[in-house]
Design brief:
heterodimer, A: alpha/beta, Rossmann fold, 6-stranded mixed β-sheet, 3-stranded antiparallel β-sheet, B: MetI-like fold, binds adenosine-5'-diphosphate, binds magnesium ion
């Protein structure tokens, strides 16, 4: 049994380009204290894409993710889901910057949590949670408690938990920002592999140009005060999973330069 | 921690205690202090052995009150905490009354309780409960409100019911706080029971350690008085240690407080 079995759209055989999975129109978020965190955000999330939101801290990336999850409501504009995905709460996986695990529960119980909340019977839940743990390379660590795991392993548990419900959309809020570089690179590669084989749609928040270029098929550059999307970069050309040398290739360097310029121009543009 | 260190940890307070006892005995003998002023440790131990049937029966009575009061404190304090955690308004409305109960000295309430309640045992129980329940209530409320925000969001995202969030998130988050409160409450239950017994001052066969202390002081049996006192202290220490063990067993796999630094 595979933990993920969403249809794969990306490989080009689909007859017509499917409509967006989620589309945001004129979305604005003003907090009760008056802070305008987002203004006029138009955004379509295409099925199967790996979309990065790139921007300095404070530009509203986390706020945007929370709006997509439905944990917060926009103060203006609307967020629409593709038909068949209206049950969006069940169709979303979320990964925070911290692993956000329950310290009193084993890795298996942590991963099983979403299924448990949905009323999935224990035996089935445990089987699916174990499969999800195996997919992120943590087979054999089912009985470990979070504090017995390294930072990278905890993040893997967190990813397994996000994937266990077989969501169509995976939202990740700077998930690897607190990890060392080697661990981060390995998790980047494993995440790409998961994405490529499952066809899941990923929205990935980062403030790292390199990470966004390495991972994404599309990058949206954001600026603060108020948070808005100011530039878009696409590169569907690079095959996933990446070759080992990709990080040192000229093509990667060129894309990074392009993204850096876009970010610099965007942040210079901000008032 | 290596074995030597572990040994030292127990040996240090033990040796200190023995030294103090020896000094005490020595001084009492050197100055020939009479037993009715200050008995030495040997005289106290002798009284403890001689009066053991009487003292142990009283000890059981006091311990029973303290234990029942602790059970009541855990159930009522825990339930109230869960109720408080359901809404800020409930907490705001009720918490001041819990504080009033907490700050009023039990020796001042005990006479009233003794008048209102027919059974002395029940009255003692109520007094000990009043002293013991507050740390459980306040700690558990704090713990229930300390659940990780992101985890709480995650529960909402997955459509958790209020009950699921309570059972799977807020109660486990509150457990370390509850256990810290329990450890304090254990000692307080004993103190409350003894204090209320003093006020009640009831004699007879079913009386607790506090009455034995009063009785011994009227009869100038000071060694017996000290023996009863030593028993109360020993019980307090035992309760504290026992609850510490419970705390350790429940938290050792996951909570920071139970971690031993690994080198
Ligand atoms: N609950 C809140 N109340 C008020 N202001 C907030 C709240 N959450 C975020 N903000 C503000 O909104 C802006 C965007 O925040 P955030 O989405 O966290 O940015 P990012 O994730 O890009 O760093 C920041 O200026 C932040 O201070
Ligand atoms: Mg953020």
């Amino acid at each position: 049994m595979t933990a993920l079995s969403a249809p794969v759209f990306r490989h080009g055989e689909a007859p017509a380009p499917p409509g967006p999975l989620v589309s945001l129109r004129g979305v604005e978020k003003r907090f009760a204290n008056g802070t305008l965190a987002l203004a006029g955000v138009d955004l379509d999330i295409a099925p199967g894409e790996f979309l990065s939101l790139l921007g300095p801290s404070g530009c509203g990336k986390s706020t945007l993710l929370r709006l997509i999850t439905g944990l917060a409501e926009p103060s203006a504009g609307r967020i629409a889901w593709a038909p068949g995905h209206e049950e969006r709460r069940r169709a979303i996986g979320f990964v925070f910057q911290d692993p956000t695990l329950m310290p009193w529960a084993t890795a298996l119980d942590n991963v099983r949590l979403p299924l448990r909340l949905a009323g999935v019977p224990r035996a089935e839940g445990e089987a699916r949670a174990a499969a999800a743990l195996a997919r992120v390379g943590l087979a054999g660590f089912e009985r470990a408690f979070p504090r017995e795991l390294s930072g990278g392993m905890r993040m893997r548990v967190s990813i397994a938990r996000a994937l266990v419900t077989q969501p169509s959309l995976l939202l990740m809020d700077e998930p690897f920002a607190a990890l060392d570089e080697l661990t981060r690179h390995r998790l980047n590669d494993d995440l790409l592999a998961l994405w490529a084989e499952s066809g899941i749609t990923v929205v990935f928040v980062t403030h790292s140009v390199f990470e966004s270029v390495y991972l994404s098929t599309r990058i949206l550059v954001m600026t603060p005060r108020p948070g808005r999307v100011v530039a878009e970069l696409r590169h569907d050309g690079v095959p996933a999973p990446r070759e080992a040398e990709y990080r040192t290739s000229a093509a990667y360097a060129a894309l990074c330069r392009e993204a850096s310029h876009a970010l610099a121009a965007a942040t210079g543009m901000a008032p | 921690m290596n074995r030597g260190e572990a040994l030292l940890r127990w040996a240090a307070p033990g040796l200190l205690g023995l030294g103090v006892l020896a000094l005490w005995e020595g001084l009492v003998r050197a100055w020939a202090v009479p037993d009715y002023v200050l008995p030495g440790p040997v005289a106290i131990a002798r009284a403890l052995v001689a009066d053991w049937p009487l003292l142990s029966a009283s000890l059981l009575v006091t311990l029973e009150v303290a234990a029942l009061a602790l059970v009541a404190a855990v159930s009522v304090g825990g339930l109230l905490a869960v109720l408080f955690a359901q809404s800020r308004w409930v907490e705001r409305a009720l918490f001041p009354y819990a504080v009033v109960l907490q700050v009023t000295p039990v020796v001042a309430i005990a006479p009233l309780v003794l008048i209102w309640v027919n059974s002395v045992t029940v009255a003692l129980l109520i007094c000990a409960w009043i002293v013991a329940f507050f740390p459980i209530l306040s700690n558990t409320v704090l713990g229930l409100n300390s659940a990780d925000r992101n985890l709480a969001d995650l529960f909402r995202l997955y459509g958790a019911t209020r009950w699921q969030a309570l059972w799977l998130l807020r109660l486990p988050s509150a457990l370390p706080y509850f256990l810290a409160g329990l450890r304090v409450a254990g000692g307080l239950a004993l103190i409350g029971a003894v204090a209320a017994e003093f006020v009640a001052g009831v004699g007879g066969s079913g009386s607790g350690l506090a009455f034995r202390i009063l009785e011994a002081s009227f009869q100038l049996r000071i060694p017996r008085m000290f023996a009863a006192l030593a028993l109360i202290s020993a019980c307090g220490i035992a309760i504290f240690a026992l609850l510490g063990l419970v705390q350790h067993l429940l938290l050792r796999r996951w909570h920071e407080s139970a971690l031993r630094a690994e080198r």
